[in-house]
């Protein structure tokens, strides 16, 4: 996937492909989102008939919400931070454990314009995926652009990863 910023039409097409994959596999999806603020869930539920394959979406910005709604360990947040591989793996596993879905995706990152550090600059995004019965896995992305561009790229990467989890 290129680092170009996806358009609404491209995100919609990707969501339609995810929908077809989920229907084919007879699976439901749950999303756990931080920096995308529910954009993944919105893109998916914009698809007609999404209730057949979309289970739930959780938006968690604060440490407390990540702990309460997804079961992220406070020690993980304290030691690794919210934007980390450890946290996104706990987010995606927590989403899977709490909802009836067969597939989960989670995202946490720094969309900017502020909040970045030398170690975790603006554009740092961790995305995790998990399929029921399998292991959670995560990938680090370094997106560029303004807040919207980073969020759009995050949504596209998350959806592409769901497709890989279903077909790979």
Could you describe the 3D structure shown?
- This protein has 168 residues and is α/β, with parallel strands linked by helices.
- Helices cover 45% and strands 19% of the residues.
- It has a five-stranded mixed sheet, sandwiched between helices.
Notable characteristics:
168 residues; globular; alpha/beta; 5 strands
Low-confidence stretches: none
Write down the Rg: 15 Å
Strand content: 15-25%
**Per the principal axes of the C-alpha atoms, what is the gross shape?**
globular
Adjacency order of strands in the biggest sheet: 2-1-3-4-5
SSE run: HEHEHHHEEEH
Quaternary assembly: single chain
Largest sheet: 5 strands, mixed
Helix coverage percent of residues? 40-55%
Class per helix and strand makeup: alpha/beta
Mean pLDDT: 96
Question: What is the first-to-last residue Cα distance?
Answer: 16 Å
Please work out how many helical segments DSSP would assign.
Answer: 6
Query: How many runs of DSSP E, i.e. beta strands?
Result: 5
């Amino acid at each position: 996937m290129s680092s170009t910023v996806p358009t609404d039409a491209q995100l919609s097409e990707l969501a339609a492909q995810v929908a077809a994959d989920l229907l084919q596999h007879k699976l439901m999806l749950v999303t756990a989102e931080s920096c995308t603020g529910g954009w993944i869930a919105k893109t998916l539920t914009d698809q007609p008939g999404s209730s057949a394959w979309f289970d739930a979406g959780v938006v968690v910005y604060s440490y407390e919400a990540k702990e309460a709604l997804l079961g992220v360990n406070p020690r993980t947040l304290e030691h690794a931070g919210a934007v980390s591989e450890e946290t996104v793996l706990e987010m995606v596993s927590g989403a899977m454990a709490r909802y009836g879905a067969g597939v989960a995706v989670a995202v946490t990152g720094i969309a900017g314009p502020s909040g970045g550090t030398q170690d975790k600059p603006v554009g740092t995004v961790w995305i995790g995926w998990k399929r029921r019965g399998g292991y959670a896995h995560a990938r680090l992305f370094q997106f560029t652009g303004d807040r919207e561009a980073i969020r759009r790229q995050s949504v596209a990467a998350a959806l592409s990863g769901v497709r890989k989890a279903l077909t790979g």
